[in-house]
Amino acid sequence: MPHALVREIERLPRPRPFWQVAHDKMCPGTRTRMTHQPVVHVASIRKTYGSTVAVDEVSFDVQPGEIFGLIGPNGAGKTTTMECVEGLRTPDRGLISVLGLDPRRYVYSLQERIGVQLQEAQLQKRIKVHEAVGLWASLYRKPMDGDRLIEQLGLRDKRNAWFMTLSGGQKQRLFIALALINDPELVFLDELTTGLDPQARRAIWDLVRGIRQRGKTVFLTTHLMEEAERLCDRVAIIDHGRIIDIGTPAELVQRHCPERTVIIATEDPTAPERFRAIPQVQSLSSEGMQLTIRGSGADLVTHVIQCLAEHRIRVIDFRTELPTLEDVFLKLTGHLIRD
Amino acid sequence: MLRGLWNLTWLEIKIFVREPLGVVGTVGLPVLIFVGFGRLLGSQVRQASPGMPRAISVDLPILASVLIATSTVQSLVAIIAIYREGGILKRLRATPLRPYTILTAHVMVKLLFTAITLAAMLLAGRRYYPVDANVPLMSFTLALLFSTVSILSMGFLIASIVPTARFAQPIGTLILYPMLGISGLFVPVASLPLMLQAVARALPLTYAVSLLRGIWGGEGWSAHVGDVTILLVMFLAFTAVSARVFRWE
User: Fold this and answer.
1) Is B94 in contact with A162 (Cβ distance < 8 A)?
2) Do A293 and A262 touch, CB atoms closer than 8 A?
3) B15 in contact with A at a CB cutoff of 8 Å?
4) What is the pLDDT of residue B38?
5) Which of A64, A247, A325, B164 suits a disulfide with A225, CB 3.0-4.6 Å?
6) pLDDT value at A322 more than 50
7) Residue A47 class from Cβ within 10 Å (0-12 exposed, 13-18 middle, 19+ buried)?
8) What backbone torsions phi and psi does residue A214 show, to the nearest 5 degrees?
9) What integer pLDDT is reported at residue B51 of this predicted model?
């Protein structure tokens, strides 16, 4: 690892504890700081278990202050990749740098600066919430106020509850608390919301956005495309151990699924031929009074609206359908993510 | 990381006590059985009647201590397996805690409860089995602690290899109880078949029994330098091997 990079990262202002930082002040900064050296740099790592190739030639960067998502189906190599970056596994080959350091050689000095939530982790059945937070706080040099953290994660009522009595969402919130206790610069979240109901999931998403607002970098994995779309600034799509593409959710949709669909309900008999005249329209089908217009390019919707206005077509209903990351995944891999 | 060790040990003690059945099984049951046997056989033991097997008439303190140590090893194997299977070990490892700190904490908890159990037995059982004032209790405690640590290191090796928690118990039993059988407590090692003698000499319990019996009987440490050395070497070897093969998940 070049020393210049290490120095560069050390020069970066360490984010202040979040309770000293006004949220609205942090938000704009997160975008501009993305020009700095990456927080995580992964180059061509490979990991095999026996004859199974779990991770193959995986490369990506995570930038300061972003929420970066590694997305793909179960068994795609997400967790293996993340655990290599965390220093819990050693790749067979390839290069990893976390905050400018090799995670294998500097695993203990990095532990002070990163926060980790592991997939399907458990704690002792009869450990109390405040005991777990207290133990974790005692392990780090500069811990945050544990009670304050418990309160911020909505666990105050459960302070004295045993781990085994917590609900799935409460357990995950406790694991987030443990991941944040050392006020880390980089937080790893592995399949954070798996097994949670939609309401608990949304609450967790808000918490993760809160972590970013505190000026921290978040590296997460998920197999939920909705989660990636709503939460991540950038995503890397991984399937069968290989990265297929990296970009913002909007970029990926734009790049791989430029199709747009406009669905209009109208009784105007001239409408179909008017729409066919728009150059961007590729196909048009009608069912009763419902017309489905398909075409490509971001301008399609504008052209359709202009056409409606120009010809004074009376519309009963108008809606658009945009492709999602789910569609991108299907297109890139040829299978649904849930398969 | 001494603070982490202390905090984790203290926490594990509290967690252990929160499971009443575990405490009853570890501390209560052995004491109860000891006292029960004492009521039934106490007079015979005291008069050293010829019908009593040597293991009870002469070696009772040794037998009791070694049984407790063995069950300590069993529960250590079980708890490591459970913690591993539940992902608790992995979660603890992803902190500044060093691996040996996590494992040492568990050994300390086990040793503490072994000591409590034996102390309780000594107190509750002294009516039926009065301890001779000449017995060097401090030396014996030290010898027992030393032996237990050595046997525990073997438990760690077992814990390092067993794949699942469900498998840990039978494997532990399969190794520990035959080991007890040929340790010299029931039959002198010299009178075992040659094959078993060789096996017995490769296991720590044989030396532990020899050491404990000697110390209880009033022999000095100098008479047992060989036992101590071998137990120490075994401890180091088992620890080194399990450090290499230990699986965290």
Assistant:
1) no
2) yes
3) yes
4) 78
5) A325
6) yes
7) buried
8) -80, 5
9) 64
Neighbouring CB atoms inside 10 A of A309's CB total 9
> Closest Cα to residue A338, out of A172, A196, A222, A244?
A222
Q: Which two tokens stand for residue B22?
A: 């575990």
Residue of B nearest to A109 (CA): B96
> Which residues in A229-240 are b (16+ Cβ under 10 Å) and which e?
bebbbbbbbbbe
Of A201, A206, A228, nearest in space to A72 by CA: A228
pLDDT surpassing 60 at residue A30: no
Q: Which residue has the higher pLDDT, B129 or B101?
A: B101
Residues of A in contact with B86 (CB under 8 A): 122
- Name which of A112, A127, A139 is nearest B97 (Cβ-Cβ): A139
Q: A62 — phi, psi (to 5°)?
A: -115, 130
Q: Which residue of B has its CA nearest to A188?
A: B94
Q: Which residue has the tokens 């004491």?
A: B31
- Sort out which chain A residues have CB atoms less than 8 A from B97's CB and list them: 139
**Kind plus residue range of the DSSP H or E element containing A180:** helix A168-180
CA distance A308 to chain B (A): 59
Q: Which residues of A touch B (CB under 8 A)?
A: 86, 88, 108, 111-112, 116, 118, 120-127, 131, 134-136, 138-140, 162
Radius of gyration for the alpha carbons in chain B, expressed in angstroms and rounded: 19
Pairing type for strands A234-239 and A67-71 reads parallel
Q: Note the pLDDT of residue B50.
A: 63
In whole angstroms, what is the distance from residue B74 CA to residue A238 CA? 43
